[in-house]
Amino acid sequence: MSDSTRKSASHYAIGNKNPNLPFHPAVRAGDFIFVSGQVPKDENNNMISGTIEEETLATLKTIARVIAHEGATLSDVVRITTYLEDTRDFGRYNKAFLEGIGDAVLARTTVEAKAVINTKIEMDAIVYKPLQAGK
């Protein structure tokens, strides 16, 4: 856990909060991790701008980095909501999503959202990763 914000032993923030934003990258609540909307960024937190395929794969990697703080992987994801800037990208996004998500068994919703700014895609996620004893 990178942030000292803690409500209880099983409810706390994950990752470093941007001081300009009113939320954390993710929050653990018991056995679930709720990941805030993530966009395509590299390991140094720089935005990646590219094709919908490149941005989809980069966004999934961003989610993977956030949940790795809790020992979770993309195979632990149980739900993703995707916000596309343009639904005409759906087919290409869907193909890249299938490539990037691996063997995860999950529910998914995809919607067009005009609030997606300076990127083609944003995703939030719910992860099921039981707390380890002693956490």
Automatic annotation (TrEMBL):
Family: Belongs to the RutC family.
Keywords carried by this UniProt record: Hydrolase
Source organism (scientific name): Mesorhizobium cantuariense
InterPro entries for the chain: RutC-like_sf, YjgF/YER057c/UK114
Enzyme's top EC category: hydrolase
The protein's name: RidA family protein
UniProt superkingdom: Bacteria
A Pfam family it matches: Ribonuc_L-PSP
Secretion signal, residue range per the UniProt entry: none
